[in-house]
Amino acid sequence: MSTRQSALVTGASRGGLGDALAQELHARGFRVFATARTLSKVQHLKDLGMEVVKMDVADSTSIRNAAAQVASLAGNRLDILINNAGTGLLGYQSTLLDADIETARQLFNVNVFGVLDVTQAFGPLLIASKGIIVNAGSVLGTVPMPFCGVYNASKAALDSLSKQMRIELAPFDIRVIHVWHRRTCDSVRHFLLSALFFAFPFFPCPGKRVG
């Protein structure tokens, strides 16, 4: 069994934040498990010496299969879990009154329930190593913004989930880190988010206040 510390990164498809995180951890000597729904999108990480695992964070069966695979390979231990996978459904925008409820459910299924599902599945491995959980949030979970209400609400919910995890997992000596990141220049979101931020640099707030 390897003595290297292990890390699993969800949503590690080429060109995204997870890709960069996986490569940085690998460069620092970690044994990296990089996950994606489509293995061809993480083939470049396998070519660099990382281990790739097929996993869809919106599918409980897929998550359990991935957890069993990693447990077998890593000796039932995992030092770091990075819940990076998330979705904005390619920049889906709508007012709350017009938002499609099924689309809203998809956003919450990935950005909130997916994180909880993955954490539950890999929890025993993290307990065994007294590991670290990192949840990738967004500054958009802290402020209202035109046409982004559903996405922002999902990221606000993730922040609350992280705080609850921190309390409940502390007795197991598991640390929980919630990262509020802003724009990341990945292949999908670069144009969409740049356009959104520059189109609404100073958006009006109801009552002339935020919150």
TrEMBL record:
Keyword NADP: yes
Keyword annotations: NADP, Oxidoreductase
One Gene Ontology term, aspect cellular component: lipid droplet
Pfam family, one: adh_short
Highest taxon above the source species: Eukaryota
Statement: the UniProt record of this protein carries the keyword NADP: yes
BP GO annotations: phosphatidic acid biosynthetic process; triglyceride catabolic process
Gene Ontology molecular-function annotations: acylglycerone-phosphate reductase (NADP+) activity; triacylglycerol lipase activity
Biological role stated in the UniProt entry: Hydroxynaphthalene reductase-like protein; part of the Pks2 gene cluster that mediates the formation of infectious structures (appressoria), enabling these fungi to kill insects faster. The product of the Pks2 gene cluster is different from the one of Pks1 and has still not been identified.
Protein family (similarity comment): Belongs to the short-chain dehydrogenases/reductases (SDR) family.
Full protein name: Hydroxynaphthalene reductase-like protein Arp2
